[in-house]
Amino acid sequence: MTSTGADLRAFARLIESLTPWLDQVVIIGGWAHRLHRLHPVAQTLDYAPLTTLDADVALPNELKVEGQDIYQRLQANGFQSQFLGEHKPPSTHYHLTAEHSEFYAEFLTPLVGSAHERGGKSKGTTQLGGVVSQSLRHLELLLRAPWTVILSRASGFPLEGEKSILVANPASFISQKILIHRKRNRDERAKDTLYIHDTLETFGADLVTLQADWREKIAPKLHAKSRRQVEAAGETLFGQVTDEVREASRMAQGRTLSPERIREVCAFGIGQIFRSSGI
Fold first, then answer.
1. pLDDT band at 1 (very low <50, low <70, confident <90, very high)
2. Which runs of consecutive H residues, i.e. helices, occur in the chain?
3. Rg from Cα positions in the chain
4. Cβ-count burial of 26 within 10 angstroms (0-12 exposed, 13-18 middle, 19+ buried)?
5. pTM higher than 0.85, yes or no?
């Protein structure tokens, strides 16, 4: 899927909805990957970024809300809730109903402690800021040391003036995908592999900045076992060509991208960014 004017208009509506909290919430997932290319240290690449219909928004557990809540602002901008699953509260997608758009937003927040409350009730979802947020492991990584990008009409977003938004730090983005790798299905692992490859190419000329963020802002707050898992991923995940790497190559439509090239880029980039932090 390539970027379209409809995509950018829909995302702009989401950003308008989130304006009071843009200094607290972080864009993660596929939209963070797209928006990384707007950052000053990003390289210009000759292929389009991977895209997705949905936008994932990370909310801190201590989100501050005054006056209107997030859902009230979403409604005012044409979004409606769609309930899914059996959690209480139920998992929720916030669909943009205006213009018959397929775009929707999903909110995510860190899972703290056990996945279940006393009595066995799942802590899979929580109510936060007027919206239902899915609670996930390792989500806190994506809230650490986020980068800022500027959205405006000049970059294709029909907004009133410029908006400074927070996006997942590329080092956090890659390390989180490494940590959730084993819990993903095969197609998800392949897509995550391509995300990692493309992120490394986007910032390939400035991996030292990602390394510094990892060492100084991200790794010190990560559990030692998780830190070692990330630091070893160049070998454990990309020491050889795997089925996921081959499938990632097939997903790179319109590009001549061999499985071995993906493996080499990922092994090298991960080795540079996440070399032992010595913590």
1. very low
2. 5-17, 29-35, 70-76, 170-180, 186-202, 207-213, 224-231, 233-236, 243-251, 259-273
3. 19
4. buried
5. yes
In 3D space, the residue among 164, 134, 140 whose CA is nearest the CA of residue 152 turns out to be 164
Q: Supply the DSSP symbol for 78.
A: T
Q: Write out the two tokens for 205.
A: 């000329």
Place of tokens 């950052």: 39
Structure tokens belonging to residue 18: 């989130």
Domain boundaries, the chain: 5-167, 170-273
CA 201 to chain centre: 17
Question: Hey, what are 172's tokens?
Answer: 């956090």
Contact residues for 250 (Cβ-Cβ < 8 A; gap 6+): none
Region 7-20: mean pLDDT is 96
Return the amino acid letter for 133.
S
266/92 Cα distance (integer angstroms): 34
**Single-letter amino acid code for the residue at 217:** K
